[in-house]
């Protein structure tokens, strides 16, 4: 069931990808740490079972994810996210994202928690690095 829901989400995202793509304006400077948890759905960020990444190599993977994410035009409609991400910056600001890792096709997707109508595709190479990072912990 979960696998078929992922495929439905992937097909929805790919349909949007076939139209023109754009970049994003996600903040990547001054990331201090990234907290990741398994998601419990939209609008319910987890507060338990958190993994915090604060080492420079790990932070670089998340910076690359945010920097290389390509906006997909249109309004996306997908199943609930796999992961909740909270990015904490040196100035104590935080940004929140929802993440779907697509191990089948390689490209994953990301949503800004403040704008869940807009999807962003994450390239295959960054997806692979995210998977390695998350599976290591």
The tally of structural domains comes to 1
The overall pLDDT average reads: 80
**CATH topology title:** Immunoglobulin-like
**What is the class in the CATH system?**
Mainly Beta
The end-to-end span amounts to: 25 Å
Describe the structure.
- With 137 residues, this protein is α+β, with helices and mostly antiparallel strands.
- It has a single domain (2-136), classed as Immunoglobulin-like (Sandwich), CATH 2.60.40.4400.
- It is 31% helix and 30% strand.
- The chain is built from three helices and seven strands, in the order αββαβββββα.
- It has helices at residues 2-17, 56-68, 124-136; strands spanning 31-38, 51-53, 70-72, 83-89, 94-100, 108-112, 115-122.
- It has a seven-stranded antiparallel sheet with strand order 2-1-4-5-6-7-3.
- Helix 2 packs antiparallel against helix 3 (124-136).
- The longest helix is centred in the first third of the chain and has 16 residues, at 2-17.
- Mean pLDDT is 80; it is low at 4-8 and 10-20.
Please tag this protein with its features.
Immunoglobulin-like; 137 residues
């Amino acid at each position: 069931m979960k696998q078929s829901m992922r495929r439905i989400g992937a097909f929805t995202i790919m349909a949007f990808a076939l139209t023109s793509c754009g970049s994003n304006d996600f903040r990547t400077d001054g990331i201090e740490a990234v907290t990741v948890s398994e998601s419990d759905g939209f609008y319910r960020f987890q507060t338990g079972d958190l993994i915090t990444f604060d080492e420079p190599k790990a932070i670089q993977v998340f910076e690359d994810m945010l920097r290389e994410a390509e906006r997909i035009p249109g309004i996306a409609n997908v199943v609930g996210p796999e992961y909740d991400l909270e990015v904490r910056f040196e100035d104590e600001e935080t940004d929140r994202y929802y993440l779907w890792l697509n191990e089948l096709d390689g490209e994953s997707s990301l949503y800004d928690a403040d704008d869940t109508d807009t999807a962003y595709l994450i390239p295959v190479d960054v997806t692979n690095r995210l998977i390695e990072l998350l599976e290591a912990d």
